[in-house]
Amino acid sequence: MPSPRTSAPSTTTGSDALLYLLFGVLGAAMAFGSLAWLTGNLTNSLAGSGPWAPFRATDALLHPEMLWPALSTTALLTGARVVPALLTLALLTTVLVLWLRRRAGAKTGLARKGDLAPLLDKEITAKAKSLRPSLGDRDDKEVAPADRGILLGTLDPGRAEVRASWEDVIVAIMAPRSGKTSGLAIPAILAAPGPVLLTSNKAANDAFTATVDARAEVGTVWTLDPQQIAHHPREMWWDILADARDLAGAKRLAGHFVAASVDESSGSDFWSTAASNTLGALFLAAASHRRRITDVLAWLASPADRTPVDLLTDAGHDAVAAQLQGTVSGATETRDGIYETARQYASCLLDPDVAAWVTPNEDLPEFKPLAFATSHDTLYLLSKDGGGSASAIIAAAADAVMRAAVIVAERSGGRLDPPALCVLDEAANVCRISDLPDLYSHLGSRGVIPVTILQSYRQGQRCWGEAGMDALWSAATVKIVGSGIDDADFADRLSRQVGDHDVQTVSVSTSEGGKSTSVSMRTEQILPPDAIRALPKGKVLLLATGLRIAMLSIRPWYKEPSAKVVGPASARATKAITERALAKTVGHDDFGLSA
Known about the structure:
Layout: E1 10-13, H1 14-47, H2 57-62, H3 64-67, H4 73-108, H5 121-131, H6 145-148, E2 150-155, E3 160-164, E4 170-173, H7 181-191, E5 196-200, H8 207-216, E6 221-224, H9 247-261, H10 270-288, H11 293-301, H12 307-314, H13 318-329, H14 332-345, H15 352-355, H16 369-373, E7 378-382, H17 391-411, E8 420-425, H18 427-430, H19 436-443, E9 448-454, H20 457-475, E10 478-481, H21 488-498, E11 500-511, E12 514-525, H22 529-533, E13 539-544, E14 550-553, H23 563-585
Parallel strand pairs: 4-9, 4-10, 5-7, 5-8, 6-7, 8-9
Antiparallel strand pairs: 1-12, 2-3, 2-14, 10-13, 11-12, 13-14
Helix pairs in contact: 1-4, 7-8, 8-23, 9-10, 9-17, 10-11, 10-12, 10-13, 10-14, 12-13, 19-20
InterPro entries: P-loop_NTPase, T4SS-coupling_protein, TraG-D_C
Domain TraD/TraG TraM recognition site: 419-537
Organism: Streptomyces phaeofaciens
């Protein structure tokens, strides 16, 4: 059965095609004759050989010597033949290119330049000025590209820059080595006008090394590297219990440790819930009396220790104290099971080198999220992924920074200016913030711009569950999908979102009366799933709220003019990491034992 949108075929004979060709030749001849008349007169005037000839395109085309008899043969050939021929060729080429572009845009069904006007220079600049009071008095030309928004890529043809605004929240799904770091994260960090947060599980030859020198010229660089991804010396400390001085903050902190250890599907069983509640109570007890995080480990090792119960009671948290006492006084098997689960969740703190990064140290500067929100500083949060990682600390720090930025924004009129950029690279591996989908609904309106980068849609589902990932995807006002999408269901879903378009089908038949051409219209998917899967490297699909889906070309940092500076800086930073790693092995044999 034919598609309901398929139109009835129309038939065009060969004589019609010849008629169109004739009209085209006549049009080209008229254009050449008109230009020959104009350029011939201009040549005649420059040569001072007579008056301006009246408009006679035919004579200019066929008998130019009749219009300008005083011109020499060379001048006549140049002015009435060569110049108009070149101009006519340029005009026809321009018309052909514009027609082909329009036809190509109509054929692909994807967004063209006019469809993306809200994300292009003129409107995105106006929006930046409305969102950021500091830009309000500047002329549009005085607003630097970096102040207008986050560069997402360029729209071909024309290479128009497409940017997200300073209230957009972004999710990018791109496979490894598809340009997610080089084409999205690094350019955004290098151009950020305000504070920057980056999470990552890599350091050498990655976003850390490519941006650390440039960001050091803008403000202070803070590096939280508890597992020595970059072998960075401990030059700071952060109070992980600072936000755990009320029950909500303590439970949030406990949630980060749980989320880092289990996926969403198993994070709500009895043992996980009970262990989370116990961790929250112990964090609250320690934070209420400015105790160290290592005290929590001691209490976990000795469930019978009444110290945390007494501390909670002294701080006025009677209900929490009673609940913790009930857990401790319960059946031994149940209590031991709960405490053992909690110990597993907090196991990364058993390493004193890891715990030292979140333990007060009078000899080192303290990182304070509230001060960071109003600075031009950079915070690098580095952790390994997998079991035993310090990803809970990374998630807690990122969460603390974003929440502090929201508090500062609310105190300063509702929005940060300049905005804070939070690039959550490898978010599902090293920065599992359980309620990130909920945060997305209001972070952008506060000038806190999260860019969550995932390797696949299913990776997000494993982290936040199917409903949570759907909520994150829906809340993101800008979505980027790159190459390497091997999830058939997700590719099919994207294909249906891109939609269908009309395709013209031409068939030629021969009969006794001659040849006839039949033209019919049918509908087909603009981007079928196999085309999405085969999306080439360097190309991404842009899904922006209220706009047609577009295909962009990303702009990797190493193809920009700044690569002459960034490249050597990245090489130096990578070399420094290698040297620090080698320095740690001096005096040890292959088994890590002293020589």
